[in-house]
Amino acid sequence: GDSVTQMEGPVTLSEEAFLTINCTYTATGYPSLFWYVQYPGEGLQLLLKATKADDKGSNKGFEATYRKETTSFHLEKGSVQVSDSAVYFCALRPMYSGGGADGLTFGKGTHLIIQP
Amino acid sequence: DTGVSQNPRHKITKRGQNVTFRCDPISEHNRLYWYRQTLGQGPEFLTYFQNEAQLEKSRLLSDRFSAERPKGSFSTLEIQRTEQGDSAMYLCASSLGDRDHEKLFFGSGTQLSVL
Asked: What's the pLDDT tens digit per position in A14-24?
């Protein structure tokens, strides 16, 4: 079945450091790919998405590129801030709906801690 | 509009009891999802409604679980004869629009503890 694997945390960085959180997936065809973020005490929020190969999703300085050849969707940010501290989830939606295929499949989450 | 609302925030129950959670989605959203999340894991899909119709159920949703969305607005998730393995955070999400362009909005969840 479909699955998402992301790097385990916690990931601890200093403010203004470069961030990469790795995400790879297993799925049939061309799924849609997402990054969701959960700030302390809040619900999950969509951070960015990409729906086809080579698309780049971006938001709030974060970027991720849909790489079909490596089945990856790594999250990057050039200069992190303390306010970026949160749990980040990579997720996919299968290519085809019906037959039980509309729900998102999430990775386990990566806890990011940014120190001043 | 204050987003997706879930009640209660926390529920502690004894094994074998029944529990019911409520989700109020964003008012104009036609799609509503239930997920379950355990510590150190990502959310796992349980079930999905489009308006009042339940269109998909995960194999994780055993016979003890039932979800309803009677008027296409709020939804309830009931767990009968709770087991300790049911302890988890139960998340609700809603969205508007077609499948390829939808953005899910999540509530803060209901934390269930089964003793």
From this structure: 999 999 999 99
